[in-house]
Fold each of these.
Amino acid sequence: MLLLERLEDLKHHLSRCERKVADLVLGDPQAAIRESLAAFAARAGVSEPTVIRCCRALGCIGWPDFKLRLAQGLASGGGSGHSAVQAGDDAGVVLAKVFDAAILMLQRTRQAIDAAALEQATRLLAAARRIECYGHGASGIVALDAQQKFYRLGVPVVAYSDAHVHAMSAALLKPGDAVLAISQSGRSPELLGSAQRARAAGADLVAITVAGSPLAALATVAITVPAVAAAPGPLPGGSRVVDLAIVDALAIGVALRRTPLIPESTGLET
Amino acid sequence: MLLLERLEDLKHHLSRCERKVADLVLGDPQAAIRESLAAFAARAGVSEPTVIRCCRALGCIGWPDFKLRLAQGLASGGGSGHSAVQAGDDAGVVLAKVFDAAILMLQRTRQAIDAAALEQATRLLAAARRIECYGHGASGIVALDAQQKFYRLGVPVVAYSDAHVHAMSAALLKPGDAVLAISQSGRSPELLGSAQRARAAGADLVAITVAGSPLAALATVAITVPAVAAAPGPLPGGSRVVDLAIVDALAIGVALRRTPLIPESTGLET
DNA sequence: CTTCGCCCTGTAGTCAAACTACAGTTCCCG
DNA sequence: CGGGAACTGTAGTTTGACTACAGGGCGAAG
């Protein structure tokens, strides 16, 4: 994806003919990777060396190299180009953009995440006598999801979205218990209160939140997700899929330390 | 990734020289995409036409086409290879595999999904006077998520996971109302009952489920997700991220038809 | 308004990479 | 042991990618 972004950037201070090339690539990248240099140059209405010069400007060795990088970018970043949903997009386009954005965030998170913290969090949760998941709003849904996943592992686990309830529950925890606190801001006062209570009671606190937030500071282990400059446009809670995936990884990591696990098929399908 | 999988498959009933090619590719795919045909053939210790024949056997047009597909597969499939989580994986590896699996499912779904159905579903929901989201278990969480997302659009929306509650609620619906039913099996009897009630009451039914299921048959519009031969290993509910992404796309599609929408920032952060 | 100079674009030619047709070898089966 | 078929390599052809160079447009300065 970096390549298309760079192209978009450079497009403006590029001159006429080279812009024709840029537009054609941005317009239909998929087509470009299939064509030969000659075919593409003809379609753009420019000569072959012009196209090559354009590739060089982007840091590529030549046309084949450019095609290769483009292909890689498209495969990883998706086909429809880049995020921003606009009025007038039909449902198919919206879907493509939403999926692309989700995939992009997953990829970025995968690279940015701190493996050591994750490892420690997994160990803590695997050793916990009891797990409580706290979260509000969108993160409340993630907490519920975490609850369902840990259920299967035979760990006593609950999820609370009610500030009063988790405040009370947190105060009753004991050393050896663990709280999984989820917050996209890391600043919700109610959540911070319960987190503090849990720590005071001797419980461990695993937080899924952003780096540098008060919640992260409070946690025994903080799993920090990059504060994704949330994809532009009306994309509320896009990061929920990232949180869910992290919870998934945690649950599976815990499962591996607690084998044999409870079989997945319960006869109850949803 | 499909390409490397096919290579692995075919490797066994391939003959000597062609296997040398296959081994070299599987051993270091990244190297292959950089080299020219001649260089690669020399490194493999075979002649150029042999390599080409190998590419043809995999369904590619020739060496450049093979390189291209390989590059795309590597970029999309990620670095860590392919899914299956195993005992002994540390947290970082588990995370990578889980994320890869999620990304793969998103990519497959994006391509497989029926844009027309999605478009129709978006129109129905945008026109609905009232939306009710039904789902049990894992899908109950998706229903909750849908509720939160539609909230912001100013549509009256509720989510029920209790079979008795949604059975009653469905019976009270009127033409112009819409139900969003989510089920990964499409066979939950309670959900089917309420779906039927809703239809009988004149409401529209949008279903997110698998193709060919009873729920899909019942729906006004069925958004069918490929019955992903759910990634092997203990990966419960991996498809939840896919469902969430679909709900996201629906909500955004509806938002585009209902502009101006309620601002995202409410001062309430989670 | 004209003229000089630079940057940009296209043309033609070269080189290498990819592919095809064919012939030799090897291995299996009769 | 001999014949045939499949597989592998060699040589030749074609096409695609790239380079060197020449022509033209645009701005700046006189």
Note: Chain A touches chain B through 77 residues (CB under 8 Å).
Amino acid sequence: MVARMHHSASPRKGRTGRPRSVETDHAILRATRAALVDLGWGRLTMSDVAARAGVAKTTLYRRWANKNELVVDAVAVLFDELELPDRGCLQSDIEGVVLQFGALLARPETKTALMAVVAESTTDEALRERIRSAIVDRQKRLVVLGRERAQQRGELPPDDTGPEGELAAAQAVGLIFDVIAGAIVHRTLVTAEPVDPAWAHQFSTVLLAGLRGLS
Amino acid sequence: MVARMHHSASPRKGRTGRPRSVETDHAILRATRAALVDLGWGRLTMSDVAARAGVAKTTLYRRWANKNELVVDAVAVLFDELELPDRGCLQSDIEGVVLQFGALLARPETKTALMAVVAESTTDEALRERIRSAIVDRQKRLVVLGRERAQQRGELPPDDTGPEGELAAAQAVGLIFDVIAGAIVHRTLVTAEPVDPAWAHQFSTVLLAGLRGLS
Amino acid sequence: MVARMHHSASPRKGRTGRPRSVETDHAILRATRAALVDLGWGRLTMSDVAARAGVAKTTLYRRWANKNELVVDAVAVLFDELELPDRGCLQSDIEGVVLQFGALLARPETKTALMAVVAESTTDEALRERIRSAIVDRQKRLVVLGRERAQQRGELPPDDTGPEGELAAAQAVGLIFDVIAGAIVHRTLVTAEPVDPAWAHQFSTVLLAGLRGLS
Amino acid sequence: MVARMHHSASPRKGRTGRPRSVETDHAILRATRAALVDLGWGRLTMSDVAARAGVAKTTLYRRWANKNELVVDAVAVLFDELELPDRGCLQSDIEGVVLQFGALLARPETKTALMAVVAESTTDEALRERIRSAIVDRQKRLVVLGRERAQQRGELPPDDTGPEGELAAAQAVGLIFDVIAGAIVHRTLVTAEPVDPAWAHQFSTVLLAGLRGLS
DNA sequence: CTTTAATCGAGACGGTACGTCCGGTCTTATG
DNA sequence: CATAAGACCGGACGTACCGTCTCGATTAAAG
């Protein structure tokens, strides 16, 4: 008899009892991000989040199974702000999104939380799945979109048609995403140096040359 | 009353009392890795490590300031196993080291620990420094070495001479390292798919094309 | 906005809206006793009682202010079963009622609940009053009745007439009640040995000798 | 693997590690009584006791399995203060000890706690045993002593010799203890009226007459 | 037959204590 | 001195229960 956890897509027709407050959800997520900024992942506590949100600890646990899942959701919405600017050419587009992503990772609430939940996810399959669906897969759209736009401009050759062409395209998207996201994360969190315009330019130059070499 | 912490290089002449057992160090680090394998970072406890090593908790804290630093050291030695094979051409060399790095990150003790300590390091300057010195900087040698070897073979142009040339070279090493390490980490931990020969080949193809585009 | 609480004797004319179900009251009290048997006072929960009674928690709290008051009422009705048998002589009458009382306190629902609510009553005046009116005072009738019957039989001297005589009689009733009820409760709950015929006989012998010494 | 709980009689020779502080034991028991006075059983919390004692909650749980056992021990020592005064005749002796017992039960720390733990003991065999050994059995000495003294004075007949005589004496002690303790507890906690000299006199008169009727 | 004002089941909610766990320090006795 | 053992403080964890609240759905009696 597993408790129903969070976010049933349907508006739960036929359900009885007092409905969950939707605003409470947002208040909790907001409070979580604020706590991340102030305290960082390591010192963030559920009690503190509850207090900031003006909510009982029970309410947190009724909606999220644990700290990790809460933090993933709290951070995930920030990633949805990313978008692919149309700056006229592929290199500029890449530089733009790299800078955005770098700026996002530089924010204390993402910096401290992202790697922590990824680390936990190595021993928690449910968490890994939540990260993938809430963050990773949602951002691959940027790569797909950039690729399409460049193909329309003629900067990249069109996809091969047919099933093996689609497979190759999907693999390419995965690889490129790993390279872009990985490099930015590594620079920000491990090397601990900023993703500034100069770096973004250098990186996108390398990447673009690499992409041309793919085909 | 600051405790003298760990690893004075000199055999500290003139000190009296019972000396620390060197074998104990290795036993603790071994126990730490074993605990990481069994429990993962999140569930690993100092008491458990102490018990596995047949040692008192006191002994741990006399040698490492806290859990994070212990784990960094326990994992760091694994990275020293990496080496750059000479397979005759740059692309093969890259593929070789990518596969090694991928295999290393696939091991449970690194997978679970690395991102965790990186996450902690965002709010712990001392820890960040220890990660850099114990892991990151030590592995940049691979990039430097591979670059030199490729230059000798004529696969890459020689560095510009003069101070601004050296600076550019250092920057390039940093960038390349972020790209390689970042991509592998991201594929392993976030995308959660294996770094196999096919991926290594595709990745090194892109990277090599990118490198040629750098100059 | 004080809620109207429970058991207005009058059928409250002039009120509209759906009336409370009377059967629900009994179902709840029955469920409470069942829960006491199964769980004991300490582990009994309001949710559990509600579930057993097939009723919402709200319904409980609409009728009783809190757990303590509910339990007092649930247990109180059991005490009304006590009666003074006419066995022909005072000593036999006492033995009879002692055995009845002993049997009642041996039942798990009273055993576990009675002392608990008494304990709570030390810091809850309303609860103490409810216990007194629902249980204690109602059972003093047994002492009064037995006394009268014995006086009619000539086993005890008649009360002194006049105000000071009545006072003395009331005091005597109080004392005797404390002795009887106290001894049985203590034997059952503290000494934890049964109130069997042998003990009842010995006790009533002592008590009767004591009573004769009173006058 | 049950943890060793509290008060091994032996001074535990051959044990290693930091020994438990004995003073801490007393500080905790003192704090518990203070909390009982201020808050009563129902509102007393382990955290509060720990804070009052200047001790971590862990330390409490290392020594007592739960709140109930702690409170029993905290209250038990108070009962050891009771003693049988030698006032020259049995009735006076009884009155003296009744008043003492009444005064003890009137204290907030005993009043609120005693019945609560007795109530819990109905569903907790270990607790019942602890109450018996820590409180009940220790106070039976008063009955035994008073009886002996009265026999020496010739106020009561000597015990029958022989095994059945001893059994009868033991039973009598049990009965008398139930009557005395029960009556005082009932008057104090249920009837909620004071055990004053007048009541003590009346009660002891009845009791004494009853005792004479026993033989 | 509608209106009205309550009751009812379900369950979310704020609050608070529970008993457990762990990090890191301190105190013993023994090398 | 180092060491093993384990007590200790502090504080977060996730659970449980109390008593309140908010829903939508009933249900009797009054109009």
Note: The first helix of chain A runs from residue 22 to 43.
